[in-house]
Amino acid sequence: MDYQARDIEQKWRQRWETEGTYHVSNESDRPKYYVLDMFPYPSGAGLHVGHPLGYIASDIYARYKRLQGFNVLHPMGYDSFGLPAEQYAIQTGIHPAIATSENIDRYRQQLENLGFSFDWSREVRTSSPEYYRWTQWIFQQLFKHYFDKDAGCAKPITELVERLASKGNAGLNADCEEETPIISAEDWNAMNEREQQLFLLKYRLTFPEESYVNWCPAMGTVLSNDEVKDGVSERGGYPVERKLMAQWSMRITAYADRLLDGLDDIDWPYSLKEQQRNWIGRSVGASVKFSLAEDEATKIEVFTTRVDTIYGASFMVLAPEHDLVDQITTDAERANVDEYRTWAASRSEVERMAEVKKVTGAFTGAYCINPFNEQPIPIYIADYVLAGYGTGAVMAVPSGDQRDWSFATHFDLPIVPILDAQQNLETEADATKEGKYINSGMINGLSYEEATPKLIAWLEEQGIGKGKVQYRLRNAVFSRQRYWGEPVPAYWKDDVPYLVAEDELPLVLPDVDKYLPTETGEPPLGRAENWKYQGKYDYELSTMPGWAGSSWYWYRYMDPHNSEAFVGKEAVDYWQGVDLYVGGSEHAVGHLLYSRFWNHFLSDLGLVPQKEYAAKLINQGMIQGVIEYIYLIKADEGDSSRVFVSADKLGDYPDAEFAQIPVHVDFVSEYGRDESYLNAEGIKQFIEWRPDYSAATFVTNDAGHLVTKSEVGKMSKRYFNVVNPDDVVAKYGADCFRMFEMFLGPVEQAKPWNTNSISGTSRFLNSFWRLFYNRDEWVVNEDQPTKEELKSLHTAIKKVTEDVERFSFNTCVSAFMVATNELGKAKCHKRAILEPLLVLMAPFAVHMCEELWEKLGHTTSVHHAAWPALEEKWLIEENITYPVAINGKTRATVDFPADSTKADLEAAAPGLEDIQKYLEGKTIRKIIVVPGRMINIVVG
RNA sequence: GCCGAUGUGGCGGAACUGGUAGACGCGCUGGAUUCAAAAUCCAGUUUCUUCGGAAGUGUGGGUUCGAUUCCCACCGUCGGUACCA
User: Fold this and answer.
1) N or C end of chain A, less CB within 10 A?
2) Contact, A120 vs A21, CB < 8 A?
3) Which residue has its C-alpha nearest to nucleotide B41's C1'?
């Protein structure tokens, strides 16, 4: 019988399900291992061939660990709240829960089709109330805690209340809003309930605040920074504007240092860690207050990383949106300043980015005093200073900073050298820290290392500045004016938010008549009828962002049905955290940063044992598609003729301009290859698909082909090049699909999808099958294996074990091919060889190996067998083939006994017949011998 | 601009600590089997060559007996980031 993938795969999928083969228990004597895939969002489009790449890799690793004797947790679930289902609901009126559930069913079916070893009894969905109950619960814990900087962790807000009542907040080192006033215990106790609650919001780890947000009018929602790309929404590409709105916010900045330091403890890709480091953007420097020249009481605070350059500060620049601009602008300059501010506000993000090099700004007419030398310096506004970073004001040191230098040059402001090592200040700034200070008052003659502490000490003494650490990381906006998300479990009383009682969770998402904002501009939840807390208080109407549910989900898998806690203590004590996390690098500064933040918080509360939840992470590369275009001659206006030209015939139209029209890849012959084309049938399909081109002319080549242009790019609906894994599985089987995807190349590398070579993988599986079957005849025998056969087996064991350990799955597949070729040539059908080989390959070809394992007489699953042990003795050779090189160039290969010593080889090498001609007339200067590797004779 | 990744036959890729460059697979060429096809099997396949050899891992240098691997400079491609004071 030839290998019949379809029947065998179906049979085993059913058997595994009924027998619970992949069911995982929280109680085991085996050591635990947790392999996690990044949560998929179940989109309506289903899986394409790029999605399973990481799942296959993690499944192989999970199965390998299981065979190694680990109790492996390998779950799957869905991040099922999200915008596409809501957009669909807006268009169709169908409740997003219904569409989502259908999409999940389809995903599940597609995933099962690939033979993954997920324990489906642990499946979770972020949009189910049983799940989001705990997302809401964690949100409430964040509300109930503040960050104590001395302790370096979160503390209950009740402790803060006690402290405020007894001592006030003087000397309290806690993360809080920038301008939190210092109050005494008397002040606190004199406050009414409402005032106290408002005050506490300055400390809570989640809190509502008026803040500038990325408002997307087209989508009617707020986006986080990582959802905005180039000034437009990442999803949909709609324009985004800055708008001041009341939003819930997460005080992630409190954890900035811990998130930075934690990176040192986890084995994640270097580039991913770098992205997080840059995103957090820690800068060490100082804040300095400059007094206004006309009004000493008004201070402008700046942040600088180079306080040592302060004597070179020859002007100050404020962001156009800075609060003080109105107040300080002189009447003479007001018109000018207003004009600049209007202009700056009108510029889109895109324009600002495009014109980075252009110097713009306006003088306010005001001056401030440099506290160190008492010199007045002019105050400008310019949009190169960002309102959202630091204090929105900078002291400009043109000799040391290129932007300041350009600005000074443009406005003819002084450029004062401050270090004797600075060079070429006429042509550019020099940011060096070398040399000794000049023109710098108290630090003249000092070095950088000496100057900085001295200046900071002086600032602190004077009470006008201090050493400060600034982060690029902003607090994360946590509200979305959307329907399909977790309701925020809070209500409003006297304009103050309060939490819904814990035992009333989940706060279930109410039904609404339409999934659109209300007429008064409130979020969709404003449409819910009679939706009030205790019948009288307004609920918070915004919902949580997409990343809420995915910020803790790995714990739910450990204990998915627990109704008492988000995860039971026993479960989390057993599983601890994720040992291997597999997913795309596109989540580097979104999910992977927010989830680390929540995990740090949960660990502060003692609810989870590890500060970092994923010890190791690997990124899978994207599988790209090939986009197939056909060339259309651009017609003049009014000309209704449409002419498509074969790509190899473009030369016949030297004057024409061509448009590239993407064509559905299903119509293309030789898809993915340079010479791909539309044949007559393909052209017919194209016309049926695009009836507006039914009258078009198609200029084909001599073979009657319309040659297409093939380009590697994203696999996307937009390019009609999405390849569905189901189709490939139907044709070749899931095992072949799994092996083929692994064989394409290293998992972490991006690569184009191209099925041209899948036949090789398919052929290989057939030859492997033929080690067991000759047509219908079962040919496995009980003969004693030869040395060579044992060597083939153990070479494979060694190679595959090592390569799986380092996630090099492509080379594993080639090791299987090598072993199969060798055994096939040797006509080896021996159980003693094939049985261990089956176990070795079981994580890859999961169904086929199971089938053959059963045929070998086993009654338990191959996936519960034991990983074959390597016996080194079979790898030892009697002879070793040495390359013999003359001056590094290999001239001969010669066998020597394996136990030859270095001296033996040195003595024997020059006498070898094959190399005599290279030695003639030359002197042997040196013989280099690396035993077991090579021999090199140096002549001259 | 900055940060990161990457560059090897016609193609995907291998070479893990510097030690026979091109494993394995695709494709291609020739052959066997077959009525024919599919499937399968065998041989060949980096380039140039005066058939002795010579060159060759993006380019140019360097270290070394020996470099795809290490160092320096540069070029191309991909990803991230964007005036962060």
Assistant:
1) C
2) no
3) A825
